[in-house]
Structure formats: structure tokens, C-alpha cells
Design brief:
With 414 residues, the chain is of the alpha/beta class. Helix content is 21%, strand content 26%. Strands 2, 4, 6, 7, 9 and 11 form a six-stranded antiparallel sheet that branches. Strands 1, 3, 5, 8 and 10 form a five-stranded antiparallel sheet that branches. The termini are far apart. The mean pLDDT is 94.
Length: 414
């Protein structure tokens, strides 16, 4: 006679892996998270609830230390016959573990366990000798632990926690295992220089690498309870992707830069300060924020004390960013006024440029020796909206050269 027991009511059932406060149903977030039991009976079923858009869930079953089965779960809430026809007179050590890593690129990807259905009984499981936490990347997620050596597709079936080194190490050490891992991630950045993909940023959460409202409701972003489970041994296998990042181009993510800059300004600006902080227009060379007027405006909008803020316009940077300063100064200033407001413009960095408009290089030239040209810079210092602002030279020069340039520009000022 089979009986049905909700997961939270199942006595002598051991749960592995990080979990949030919600235990009914139980969410299995990470690679190698799952259930362990000593089952005295002949038949056991598990009620899973699985969801996904891109990456289906795979489950491994280990019976008496042997990996005997793995299978994908279809969408929805279903009962799966994990083992049937066992010798009812014996006690069987069973582990049911999640094979596939947490998938931030698939917000629908989730795995929950609602209940067990079995004959017989669950007997106590001996306490492990130690608690082992393994933090890492694709190797730790057991990506490619199963499948032919020629396989290069990045798909769910090739994740197999039961064949991965963290699980095997846990077995050798008789350890209670927790895995925290993401393919392609590192200590500081991902293989392609994405600063969001750094494991330390999310370590304090139950499963902070995930995304979306659904995972928030499951408890993924809750603070992890380190007092309830504190590792005796931590193995960190990060760095390979950080190393690969040196071979990639810079990560270009203006949104992250805008957020960091605004947060920093909000942290340091106080109502008592009288200093005006200026954001400078940039050349848009890919590793900076401010190449477009809209980016500067976004920063200004996020600063709480924006009245303490202004903008410095660099002529070289603006031209290199693609604004036709030499040919259409009025048009550039009209665009600045539309997006930011000329009332925010507080200073000018006066420089020529070694590169043509839109080069995104940021290479300053001496006045009149670059692609902007002396005549265009003359118009800058005499423009009604600019002429009363402070001007600063940043040309590649020595003191005698600066003196000559200052004298030249003063002679051109009307």
C-alpha cells in the first residue's frame, strides 16, 4: 500500500543544496542539489514540478552508490516512478539529484519537489563526516561530464552532476555537498569580460545568479543562512574564465557604468557641499560611459543632488564620439541643449583631435594641428553659448607650447 507524504513532512529525508525559507514545495536550485534517503521498501515515486523555456531539467538516481538512471522532466507537475520492484526486505540507499546547473538565461527554468509516495519506510541516514562546498565554473557544474568527446553543443543533457568531480569528491570524503557554480563565470568577470558574471557578487544569496520574478518568489534572492549550514571545507575552482577574459575585447555595457557612477555620486555628495561636480563628454571608445549625451543625462537623472552637478564639454571627445563639431557647432549645441540643457554646461576642454569625426579614439592634438582645425576652434571660443565659460587646454604640449596656444586663442577671441 503506497502512502503519500509531503516533502516537509518526510522524516529521515536529507536535503542537499542551498534552499530558501520555503520548504513546501522544495526548490532545488543548484547542480547536485537533491534528496538522500535510506529506503526500506519496494517502490518509491517522487512528485516533481518542472518548468523551462530553453533548458529542460535532468535528474540522476544513485542506488547503493551506483548511478543507475538519469532522465529529463517534462513541464508541469508530475509523479515519476523513481524505483519499483526493489527487495522489500532490504534497506536501499537512494540519492536523487539535479544534474543541470542554475540557468540565468532561462528565467522559467526551475525544479521543485512536492511529495514522496512509497511503501515501506524511510530510515535515518548517517551524518556525513564533514560539510563540503565547491564553488566554480563549468567544470564544477559538471558540464560535459557525460556525452561523447566530440560533442560541443551547449545543451542540458550534457550536464550530469553524478559524473562531476564535486559529487565524486563528496563521495570520497563522505561529505554533505553543496555546489555553487556557473559555466563561463569567474571571480571577477566571465570569459567574455562581463562584470555581472562574477560569483562573489551573488554568493551571499540562496541562488542570486538567477533572474526574474518567478525565481524571486521561489526564494532565490533571499540571504543565504550561513549559520544553518557552514562549510568545513571550501573548494574554489574559479580563474580559468578570468584568464580567458584577457583574450577578449572590453565589455561594453553603458547601463552598468551609468549605475556605478550614479551610485558613487550619491554616496559622496552631501547638501552641505558647495563644489560642483562635472561629468565630462567622452569619445565613445568602448570602455567608458559618456560618449553620448543621453548617457550623461541618465547619470544626472539618477543623482539625488543633481543641482551639484554639471557637464564639461571636451572638443576632441565630442568630435571623436561622432558629433560634427567642426562642421555644425550650432547643431551639436542644439542637441546638447535638447538632451542635457545648456544650463548644465559649466566648462570646456579645448583640444584638437588627431582623428576624424566619429573615430572613437580620444587622441588629442595641438590647437590647429588636428582634424577639428583652428577655424572650428575659433568658432567654439566665440560662440555666444560658450564664450563666457572657463576654457582649459589639454593638448600634448610643454609650458612654452601652452603659452603660445593661449596667446593664439586669446587673439582669436572677439
Amino acid at each position: 500500500m503506497l502512502k503519500t507524504i509531503e516533502i516537509q513532512e518526510a522524516k529521515n529525508l536529507v536535503v542537499h543544496g542551498r534552499n530558501g525559507a520555503q520548504r513546501q514545495p522544495l526548490t532545488l536550485f543548484w547542480t547536485a542539489s537533491g534528496l538522500e534517503m535510506n529506503f526500506h521498501g519496494s517502490e518509491i515515486w517522487v512528485e516533481f514540478e518542472s518548468d523551462f523555456s530553453l533548458y529542460e531539467q535532468w535528474i540522476s538516481v544513485i542506488l547503493n552508490g551506483a548511478h543507475i538512471a538519469r532522465f529529463p522532466l517534462q513541464k508541469g507537475r508530475i509523479w515519476m516512478p523513481v524505483l519499483r520492484g526493489l527487495d522489500a526486505q532490504k534497506t536501499h540507499h537512494i540519492e536523487i539529484i539535479r544534474d543541470v546547473q542554475a540557468m540565468p538565461t532561462d528565467p522559467d527554468c526551475s525544479l521543485r519537489v512536492h511529495a514522496l509516495r512509497y511503501d515501506g519506510e524511510l530510515l535515518p541516514v548517517a551524518e556525513k563526516k564533514l560539510r563540503l562546498e565547491v564553488i566554480g565554473d563549468s567544470l564544477t557544474s559538471s558540464e560535459g561530464a557525460i556525452g561523447a568527446k566530440t560533442e560541443t553543443d551547449w545543451i542540458a543533457p550534457f550536464f550530469c552532476a553524478a559524473h562531476g568531480y564535486p559529487y565524486l569528491l563528496g563521495q570520497k570524503l563522505n561529505a554533505d555537498l553543496r555546489v555553487i557554480s556557473q559555466s563561463g563565470w569567474g571571480a571577477l568577470t566571465s570569459w567574455d569580460n562581463d562584470p555581472h558574471c562574477a560569483m562573489p557578487l551573488y554568493y551571499d544569496q540562496v541562488c542570486g545568479v538567477l533572474k526574474g520574478e518567478k525565481n524571486a518568489a521561489l526564494g532565490a534572492f533571499e540571504p543565504n543562512d550561513f549559520e544553518a549550514w557552514n562549510a568545513d571545507v571550501v573548494v574554489v575552482n574559479l580563474g580559468a574564465n578570468d584568464s580567458s577574459a584577457f583574450e577578449q575585447g572590453p565589455w561594453t555595457d553603458p547601463e552598468t557604468g551609468i549605475a556605478y557612477i550614479a551610485d558613487a555620486l550619491n554616496a559622496i555628495l552631501t547638501p552641505e557641499q558647495s563644489t560642483t561636480v562635472l561629468l565630462e563628454t567622452m569619445s565613445g571608445k568602448g570602455s567608458e560611459v559618456g560618449g553620448r549625451f543621453e548617457e550623461l543625462r541618465e547619470i544626472l537623472d539618477r543623482v539625488e543632488l543633481s543641482g551639484r552637478m554639471g557637464v564639461c564639454l571636451d572638443t576632441c571627445h565630442v568630435s571623436d564620439a561622432g558629433y560634427a563639431l567642426a562642421e555644425d557647432l550650432d547643431g551639436v549645441l542644439m542637441e546638447f541643449d535638447r538632451v542635457i540643457g545648456l544650463n548644465r554646461l559649466k566648462a570646456i576642454h579645448l583640444n584638437d583631435s588627431l582623428n576624424p569625426c566619429g573615430a572613437h579614439k580620444d587622441r588629442h592634438a595641438r590647437i590647429g594641428e588636428g582634424c577639428i582645425g583652428l577655424e572650428a576652434l575659433r568658432r567654439v571660443v566665440n560662440h555666444p553659448a560658450l564664450k563666457d565659460l572657463p576654457f582649459c587646454l589639454e593638448t600634448p604640449n610643454e609650458l612654452p607650447g601652452y603659452a603660445a596656444e593661449i596667446a593664439l586663442m586669446r587673439s582669436l577671441a572677439e
